[in-house]
Amino acid sequence: MKITILGTGMVGQTVASKLFKLGHIVTMGTRNPEETKQRTQANQITGESFSDWFKKQEGIKLTNLEESALEADFVINATSGQASIDVLKKVGEANLSGKVLLDIANPLDFSQGMPPSLFVSNTDSLGEQIQKEFPELKVVKSLNTMNMLIMMNPESIPGNHNVFVSGNDANAKEKVSGLLKSIGWKQENIIDLGDITTARGTEMLLPIWLRLWTALGHANFNFHIQQSK
Amino acid sequence: MKITILGTGMVGQTVASKLFKLGHIVTMGTRNPEETKQRTQANQITGESFSDWFKKQEGIKLTNLEESALEADFVINATSGQASIDVLKKVGEANLSGKVLLDIANPLDFSQGMPPSLFVSNTDSLGEQIQKEFPELKVVKSLNTMNMLIMMNPESIPGNHNVFVSGNDANAKEKVSGLLKSIGWKQENIIDLGDITTARGTEMLLPIWLRLWTALGHANFNFHIQQSK
Q: Per the database record, which ranges form the Pyrroline-5-carboxylate reductase catalytic N-terminal domain (chains A, B) (predicted)?
């Protein structure tokens, strides 16, 4: 597929590398491609800058937001939650119309310090806000409940653990589930929670995720729904 | 121990029966014991009324709130979230001072229909509100992330699954963990998240819990944090 990834941070990079390796035509969208290519600030986890990372990628395209989704079959929102709607507006409603958006962003609010709270929650969600702003876009919330390495490499956690899917369009959810399976997620571990309002549930997992990170001392964990047979 | 359970609903009944079977001296506190004993409305899950349930209990005491915690070593809040602080005020700050409160209530708001939202979340929690209102009470939030049958019978779900503990007082958390182990929770499955502010994380699990209940079609599940070794 022709996949456009919005966001050039660590999550965007991890997703882009993996999907390119899987054989997709990958385009990353950013406000100013020339400026992004020159970013030399090392990221906190890999220690690598976007500039150094991008030099090693052969075949991943970097374009401005306006052009990024023109040919896309599939769009992934890997921007920060606070930037998401603004970025999508720059991509352009007409360019997004009818397409599937896999939304992996979380509405984290760092303005009050650590751990972040959520800038929308409980009676609304970022997934719903995006769907409301772009009614012709088929928003599917998924993958937002774990660290980026597990998202793209579920085998890094032993045993069964879950990925959740929320969205209004059944075909769009099927397309996302197909992509998840190609990444390595087992069908039995993909839980369809229902319509996009169920994104409230997965976005509200972030507060315990952040506290587990502190309590366990690492981020190599994921939620598993353990059921009685 | 002498354990006082506040709340006579399904959760209170399930907790009381189990702890009585484990050999504790169990008192249930309610606003009007005579009225409570005459409740004939069947509950939604067991189909049994409080009146019928209570007739079968030999040895569990039922008292008014003011007297309920006088001799208690340990108090459990199994009231509805919206009633919790009012009920604790009626129990009396002096009667609670210095005691451990295991808070299993959730701040569910049913006023906007189903599924309920939370009346406090994100930057505060019911656990914190109780701790703030009763500074001399040692509040430990736990068991609020699963159905009542799993709380008191963790073996009903196969394999490993977790119970979380949040609270400011290390000794109080140890006392709660000891009770959890006596109920059947394995030490390795008890996760201490940190101070009482971490109750935000566990209370905010309710929105996904409610949606999983719908998506899976049953409530016989619990969260497990699957980690890489």
A: 2-107
